[in-house]
Queue: 2 jobs
Job 1
Amino acid sequence: MPEPAHLTREDVAHVAALARLHLTEEELDLFTGQLAQVLDHAADVASLDLAGVVPTAHAMAVTNVLRPDEPIVCLDRDEVLAQAPSVEDHRFRVPRILGEAP
Amino acid sequence: MRSDWLLVIGLEVHCELKTTTKLFCGCPNMFGDEPNTNVCPNCLGLPGSLPVLNQRAVELAMAIGTALHCDIRASTFHRKNYFYPDQAKDYQISQYDEPLNVDGYLDLPDGFRVGIERAHMEEDTGKTTHAGASGRIHGADYSLVDYNRSGVPLVEIVSEPDMRTPDQARAYVTELRAILVASGASDGKMEEGSMRVDANVSVRRSVDDPFGTRCEIKNLNSVRSLGRAIEYEAERQIALIESGERVVQQTRHWDESAGRTQALRSKEDAYDYRYFLEPDLVPLVPDAEWIRAVADTLGMMPAERRSRLVSLLDDAGGATEAQLLQVATVVDLGLDDLVVEAVAAGVGTGLALARTANEAATDAEAARHLDPKSYVALLTLEMQGSLSATQAKAVLAELFARGGGDPATIARDKGFEAMSEDSLAETVADAIAAHPDEWSRFCGGDDKLAGFFTGLVMKATRGQANGKAVAAELRRLRG
């Protein structure tokens, strides 16, 4: 059985930085507590003996949710690109990529 | 390749599906539009957006599975996580351990069977352009991303490692392309990237040896590149092993202009994609009725189309080697219905096949859009002798240029009135009278001179005479 997670305030600050989220000191405290509860719950589930249980693909027993192949109106390009930190030639400009495409 | 080494080849082919919209959102699936115009919150990976599966894409994927004799099964979608900006949401939705189509096969035209391991659905990525001198990632200062292609439906078709020569690999891709086009799933345009091929290549000394360590080659943009890259890669691996080194399992990039492969990353650097079930999508479970309905919409596959033409040739006395090549060309270009309709209307099989493979094939796009009735009418005029071969070709070019029309009217507009028998006989007689020596040699059995007289008559009539009619008149006069 896995060790219960010990989530620290520093872990949350690190993940937030990776996700480019700017959290205040109060938010760090809040989310450290909330995320720890989530991980504790996952640890509870992990402690169950599920050896004979068939994996579940989805929480609802629903299959074949489909939509017709019909076009929608797309977003306005100027509006879309205005959200980006950097734009060039009507494309999103992203920092140097380290490594090739997967 | 050296004869004391054996090749083992497996191919992965990505095929963009010919849908109106993307796989999980209603943005248009359209190549060549202005960058970032076919985007919505879903394919831009914006928070709160949810994917909904495109029914048409599923049915095209099932059509591919049917055409490749696969077992079509209940399947699920996973998130394949990676950090690369060609997917705004940082993962690609793909089928992983439960793909839609498994365990199929594809028969090459020579009868060699290639196993199909799986053909699964996934979404395409956006297009990145790397700014900097090289145009490649290395050395680029930054990159630009266009998300129009992000979310376009793909089927990845993975073959078993069954192929043993570059020729088989080429034949496999050519036949697969024809099947994808015939099933209506893809336009098969390799040059536009709607069909992309990766090759897994390894070498060994004997069929009794286990497979060698393989390398995966990417960036194969044509059937020709595929063959060249496999040959290069085999030689590279053989040289490594013979010099006492070992082949390292890695992904390699084919450089078309340099004619070699270069290492991209080795197995040790392989990504951990942290696959997990896509929680926003439910399982896709096609039942027997749906599978049968899709199969019923499937048209004739290329192999069947080829044998249909070959049996027409057999009815007409058998097929020559050249005609078998014409059959392959015509089917590959999707023009075989024209031949079948012409033959059904009474045109000779050889003529219908030759005109289609040689003339119609020069503008296959136009030929596919031509009203078959116009085409059949033209071939009928040629067969009846109302138009010479040269004239028929000119009228066909005009039909293509106009996008259709009545061949008889076009022929009249061009002044291609068939010559009356009397004036033809007169012209032939003039030619004979002007060249008595050649005529007596022809009468003495020098058949080559038939061409000489035909040429004279053609010149005198500015190409309006029918070559066959001239030949017949010459034979009649010789007696």
Job 2
Amino acid sequence: MRPLTEDESKAVFTKLANYIGKNLIHLIDRQDEPYCFRLQKDRVYYVSESSMRLGISVARPNLVSLGTCFGKFSKSGKFKLHVTALDYLAQYAKYKVWIKPNGEMPFLYGNHVVKAHLGRITEDTPEHQGVVVFSMKDIPLGFGVTARSTVDTRKLDPTAIIVFHQADVGEYLRDEDTLF
Amino acid sequence: MQRNSNQSVTVEKETPLEVDPGYLTVTDLNPVDEESYNENLEAHLQSLARDGVQALYASLFTLPTRPSPDGPLAQLPPPKTQLPRAKPLPKPKPQTKWEAFAAAKGIQHKVRDRREWDEEKQDWVNRWGRNGKNKQIEEQWITEVPLNADADYDPRKVARDARKERVAKNEKKHAQNVTRAAAAANPRDARKTDIEKTLATTRISTASMGKFDKKLDGEKKIRGVKRKFDPTEKSVSDEAKASVALLSRLESDAKKTRREPQAEESVLNTRKAVRFASKGRGGLALGREAAGGRSSRGGRGRGGKR
């Protein structure tokens, strides 16, 4: 377990900023308890200071997980967000997409969101913007990237992809052993 | 012959004494009189010294004076004698690659002025640095866009990237010149590191990448560059501060290429306002309408289908 280097922090922050924008500051500078980012076996964990200090005394091979796993670094140094970060993303998301009940299952099986399943979308969402996907009952289901801006979606046919799938809560079952 | 002139004020020698009042120095260039030297050394030296001092005093009294509380002071002229320098001459600077090339080709060095003439402003402007001419395209309020440019073509970003690239290239060249100069200054060390590098490369250039090769006696393990990380138990508040600083740096980088304020910063949502004002047809249509509102093309409904 170690703190992130500057390049790693940059990679993590740019990814997170794509979803929550300036709210990222609320993750770094928290009022309730100091939190920090820690890297352990290529995975980035968002941990409170107290549990981080407890974790220091655990040897590296024995430490399986701590805090909230935000994602992992690929071998080529790119950062990939995991669905485990969804709680924080949903809390601070700038742009949101709500999908209809008949679209929930297809999305939870890892498919993209098509226009027919689109319930609501934050207005003025630009193209290629990170969005958090909610069910109509405001339950966060996952996140993705918009394929078109809100204005452009009007003209599309119902089968056109609106949001590219990136992660969904179905991964808790599908990728149970590698997720955390 | 010195005996007779012992009490004289004027010193007469075969070769006249060289007096440099600036250094208060007298040089006697006459050959040593061997006879008097051998007869009585002390007396000979004393007479030589007296003559010298006499000549020095005589020259001092001819100098212009300046009154002072302690009596008149002679004003010494600047020294005439050329003294050798105390330190060795500086070594010539190692040539850069360009300088070597220019010398070989006989290219003359032209000193470029730091400022250049701006026709539009009718004034001298900095070539680089603050308000530099090299940032003109990035800073001017309107820029021409090529006809076949993409929709997201940003001339400001293109110009800035090109400038940054030039700077990076120059820095790279500078670093290469520095290492080349260091290698030239100490060829033995340079050769040594070169051989070590080559050896390290050959050792991992086998089919097993050096894993199953026969080890030679006294062969050391190849060590790469050791990475260094911050300690895990560092103060979290310091870490948060560093993260906030990094964030603001990321933001400022993004802002430098994009001039218009971020949507979340201003109270007015420009895109939404334009959409509302143009009834969803975009800013271009709105502008056309405003420009052609009084012209013959006129009308809102007809204007769209031309």
